[in-house]
Design a protein that fits this description.
Layout (H helix, E strand, L loop, with lengths): L3 E3 L2 E3 L2 E4 L3 H12 L4 E5 L12 E4 L44 H15 L1 E2 L7 H12 L10 E2 L2 E5 L8 E3 L2 H4 L10 E4 L2 E5 L1 E8 L8 E8 L4 E6 L2 E4 L5 H8 L14 E6 L1 H4 L11 H11 L15 E4 L8 E5 L17 E7 L10 E11 L5 E8 L4 H19 L2 E3 L30 E3 L14 H28 L1
Parallel strand pairs: 2-14, 3-4, 3-15, 4-11, 5-21, 15-23
Antiparallel strand pairs: 1-2, 6-8, 7-17, 8-9, 10-11, 12-13, 13-14, 16-19, 16-22, 17-18, 18-19, 20-21
Pfam families: GMC_oxred_C (PF05199)
Cofactor: FAD
Protein name: Glucose-methanol-choline oxidoreductase C-terminal domain-containing protein
Length: about 500
């Protein structure tokens, strides 16, 4: 079926909401299979999201954790926005769920990494990256039991190591046929993009007939007009809070748990450590780079080139260290640095452990308020988070924080993701959807994103969410591709 418009009603094969890594994965796979897709993207360059969420953070033996402001953001990734998440695979024993077997996970991860252009070598030419990595390797007193790696990131490096030569993966990378300069709706072959548009509600028909959705009610913010899209399948990838918000506004009710403990700190590299750079202790050519920098910037006291890339070093979760560690620095306008601190001296530390399930004492709930709306007029999310008080969970969190302080002490002195909100499972008793993202009780609604990933992740869940999207898209293709092929011949 080719996309066609008929006044305020548009018909197509599939509707996909969201242009983040998960939504664009669905878009690309479906279009490659000959399926017509209408993409709904709410974000505009002038709308940054935020607001609309209220955090009820209760006290327990773990103490109080601040849930990052980004949990309340509703804006979805724009076409030109780079994706800078850490693309780690989940630990096979600690973090992966059993919805897919080991071989299936390996296959899904391999495809996800290829589609997102995941690389662990883009920052290898950076002095700061190697300085942090080699320092921590040299300070390892655990007999090499802890793995320190260059963080896998969705980025390609072109030419030299200067920051301007890094090309981060974004929506237009996965979908190169997108016209990034156009406003409003853009038709491009089988792909139609509706920018600055909100999917307000899924309009359901006779629920006794399998809960089939008949259409999606949308609103174009640029024209302030509503319209309907009728499709065979509706894929909602609007974020961990907005996706269940859309379901809530359409009549579904969802709860959530599994918000991770996420301590984050900023650190300043010690002067003694930085002063080792001209001596090139690891024989990586730092002395030549430092000398060249000094000739060109004779009054700069820091022996690190101005365009040297920040570190991106990670320690994946393991059975001995059941938390994910990241030492990184993104030198851009969105990364704050104290005015008195040169950005080349600053690094960020992020340690995160998996959250316990409700069965082990942790409680989390996601509700929505019809009275309190976000900046797009959708129901506002309310998060209630009470961490576990089980002794093992408390001890793990305490050990994680001590480990972060220990690692930080080797570098210098002291100066985030919601999952499982529409989690996948094996029945509607303990989940919102199956492992392909298909919502229980419907036959044509699919959810995607970190919200599908079952709780219990130490590492960033984005890559795993893309794995679920790949599996979900393959199931949609099995269902719709034959119909699309027949329609194309007529």
């Amino acid at each position: 079926m080719a996309s066609k418009g008929s006044g305020p009603v548009t018909e197509t094969d599939a509707v996909v909401v969201g242009l983040g890594p998960v939504g664009t994965t669905y878009d690309r796979k479906l279009v490659d299979a000959g399926i017509a897709v209408h993409m709904i993207e709410i974000k505009d360059d002038t709308i940054q999201g935020g607001g609309g969420s209220r955090i009820a953070n209760q006290q327990s033996g773990l103490g109080s954790f601040n849930v990052s402001n980004h949990l309340g953001q509703v804006a979805i990734d724009d076409i030109s926005s780079p994706w800078t998440f850490s693309a780690s695979r989940r630990h096979p024993k600690l973090e992966r769920c059993s919805l897919f077997n080991g071989d299936e996970w390996d296959t899904l991860y391999a495809e996800a990494e290829k589609r997102l252009r995941i690389s662990s070598t883009a920052f290898d030419g950076s002095i700061r990256h190697q300085l942090v990595k080699r320092t921590l390797q040299a300070a390892d007193h655990d007999g090499g039991a802890r793995e320190l790696v260059s963080m896998p990131l969705p980025v390609a490096r072109n030419g030299s190591g200067e920051e301007g030569d890094l090309e981060w993966t974004r929506a237009a990378t996965v979908l190169p046929q997108l016209d990034t300069e156009a406003n409003g709706s853009v038709a491009n072959g089988l792909l139609t993009l509706h920018r600055q548009t909100r999917l307000t509600k899924l309009v359901r028909g006779d629920l006794s007939g399998g809960g089939r959705v008949e259409s999606a009610l949308c609103r174009d913010f640029e024209t302030d007009k509503g319209f309907l899209i009728k499709a065979e399948i509706y894929v909602i990838c609007a974020g961990a809070l907005s996706t269940p918000g859309i379901l809530h506004g359409s009549g579904w009710k969802t709860d959530a748990d599994g918000l991770p403990a996420l301590p984050v700190a900023s650190w300043v590299l010690s002067r003694d450590l930085v002063n080792t750079v001209p001596k090139d202790p690891y024989h990586l050519g730092w002395n030549e780079m430092a000398e060249k920098h000094k000739r060109e910037n004779f009054d700069d006291a820091i022996p690190i080139p101005l365009k040297d890339l920040g570190p991106h070093v990670g320690a994946p979760a393991s059975e001995r260290y059941p938390w994910h560690a990241e030492i990184y620095r993104n030198d851009d306008a969105t990364t704050p640095t104290a005015e008195a601190v040169d950005r080349r001296m600053a690094v960020d530390l992020r340690w995160s452990t998996y959250a316990p399930s409700s069965a082990s004492g942790g409680k989390g709930r996601l509700a929505y308020s019809d009275e309190m709306t976000d900046i797009y007029g959708m129901p506002g999310p309310i998060i209630e988070l009470q961490p576990s008080s089980e002794e093992a969970d408390v001890r793990r969190a305490q050990d994680m924080i001590q480990d972060m302080c220990s690692v930080a002490s080797k570098l210098g002195g002291m100066l985030r993701h919601a999952t499982g909100t529409t989690r996948a499972g094996t029945s509607r008793d303990d989940s919102v959807c199956d492992k392909y993202g298909r919502v229980w009780g419907t036959d044509n609604v699919v959810v995607g994103g970190c919200n599908v990933v079952p709780a219990g992740s130490a590492c960033d869940p984005t890559l795993t969410a893309v794995c679920f999207a790949i599996a979900g898209a393959d199931k949609i293709i099995e269902k719709l591709a034959p119909k699309a092929a027949v329609a194309g011949k007529n």
